[in-house]
Amino acid sequence: MIQNILVSVLGGVILANYFMNETANTPWLSIFGVLSTALYFTVFIEKCFLYNLPTTYFRPLGMVLYVTSYYSFYKFVIDTERLNVNEKESIEQIS
Predict the structure, then answer these.
(1) Residue 58, phi then psi, degrees to nearest 5
(2) What is the pLDDT at residue 72?
(3) Which of 43, 54, 87, 92 is surrounded by the most beta carbons within 10 Å?
(4) How many whole angstroms separate alpha carbon 60 and alpha carbon 54?
(5) Three-state SS string across the chain, please?
(6) What's the distance, CA 94 to chain centroid?
């Protein structure tokens, strides 16, 4: 339960960061926040409320959410590194 609350807060902070500081790489971070929050709530609902159903209902959804959320985080990291390299190159060209 505490983990779900913390993930909700993290998702809220990520979305607030997206709306307050729109840069080139924040869409990937916001996608990661939304997908990871959906993943944790899906797992929470499955474990706490739907424990009598077979696992075939929510496992594929959880796997898809897991893969897509971490792919979006990967893209966020790659884009951030690319922006940092471009900034360093532009500073070196000015100097």
Answers:
(1) -105, -15
(2) 92
(3) 43
(4) 12
(5) CHHHHHHHHHHHHHHHHHHHCCCCCHHHHHHHHHHHHHHHHHHHHHHHCCCCCCCCCCHHHHHHHHHHHHHHHHHHHHHHHHHHHHHHHHHHHHC
(6) 35
